[in-house]
């Protein structure tokens, strides 16, 4: 890119002699460096829950699995994080006149390789690639998509605290993890033991929670947290 400085294609505020200003270039580099950790962090949201037994007294955990989190599944799938990174790496190498990058290994490895390749070429991308703004914007949006799953900014997405899960394991021990109801979800599911409670069981669930809290007003510090 030549001529007078222009506005950064990402922030559209700072001036640059290329396509990305130094601040947006650094932010993009940091996002690329975090991609492997973001991919790994989504794994915890893939764990399926279980179904409560037909008798809503003391439920047994865990029976048939529930579906996994769809956003987390999509982001960790072929069209998610790895797809975005590899598509941009392929486009970058094509525009540099290089051959198509080789793709090998599992998705976790491919995420690391693609992110590293883009990071190593970020100086050229920021200074010389007309697609730099679109690239940096999609990497930023990708990080936000992951954050919306692992750390939702809307407090209501944390769910309403109901109390301790009353499910019992085969030894007779009560689970005790904190149950939350999330807006728009048809089931209350314990993230610790996987037991799930459909709406028909909620009156009995509240009774069991209240009963447990009366019997044990000071739960052990070793109990699973919210």
Supply the number of structural domains: 2
Instruction: Spell out the helices and strands N to C.
Output: EEHHHHHHEEEEH
Q: Determine the mean pLDDT.
A: 78
Computed structural class:
mainly alpha
Strand content is 5-15%
- The backbone outline, from C-alpha atoms, is elongated
Largest sheet: 2 strands, antiparallel
Total beta strand runs = 6
Computed CA radius of gyration, to the nearest angstrom: 24 Å
Annotation field: number of helices: 7
Distance between the termini: 52 Å
How would you describe what is shown here?
The chain is mainly alpha-helical. 42% of the residues lie in helices and 8% in strands. It has helices at residues 22-41, 70-76, 81-95, 107-120, 122-128, 132-150, 202-215; strands at residues 6-7, 15-16, 160-164, 178-181, 188-189, 196-197. It has a two-stranded antiparallel sheet. It has a two-stranded antiparallel sheet with strand order 3-4. α3 (81-95) packs antiparallel against α6. Mean pLDDT is 78; it is low at 48-68 and 217-226.
């Amino acid at each position: 890119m030549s001529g007078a400085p222009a506005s950064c294609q990402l922030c559209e505020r700072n001036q640059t002699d290329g396509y990305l200003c130094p601040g947006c270039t650094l932010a993009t580099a940091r996002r690329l460096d975090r991609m492997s950790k973001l991919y790994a962090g989504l794994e915890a949201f893939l764990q399926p829950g279980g179904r409560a037994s037909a008798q809503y007294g003391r439920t047994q955990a865990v029976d048939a699995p529930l579906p996994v989190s769809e956003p987390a599944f999509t982001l960790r799938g072929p069209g998610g994080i790895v797809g975005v990174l590899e598509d941009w790496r392929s486009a970058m190498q094509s525009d540099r006149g290089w051959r198509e990058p080789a793709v090998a290994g599992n998705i976790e490895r491919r995420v690391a390789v693609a992110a590293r390749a883009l990071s190593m070429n970020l100086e050229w991308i920021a200074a010389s690639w007309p697609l730099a703004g679109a690239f940096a914007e999609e990497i930023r949006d990708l990080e936000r998509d992951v954050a919306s799953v692992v750390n939702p900014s809307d407090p209501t997405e944390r769910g309403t605290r109901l109390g301790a899960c009353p499910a019992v394991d085969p030894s007779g021990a009560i689970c005790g993890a904190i149950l939350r109801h999330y807006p728009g979800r048809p089931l209350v599911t314990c993230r610790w033991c996987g037991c799930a409670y459909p709406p028909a069981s909620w009156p009995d669930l509240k009774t069991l929670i209240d009963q447990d809290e009366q019997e044990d007003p000071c739960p052990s510090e070793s109990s699973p947290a919210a």
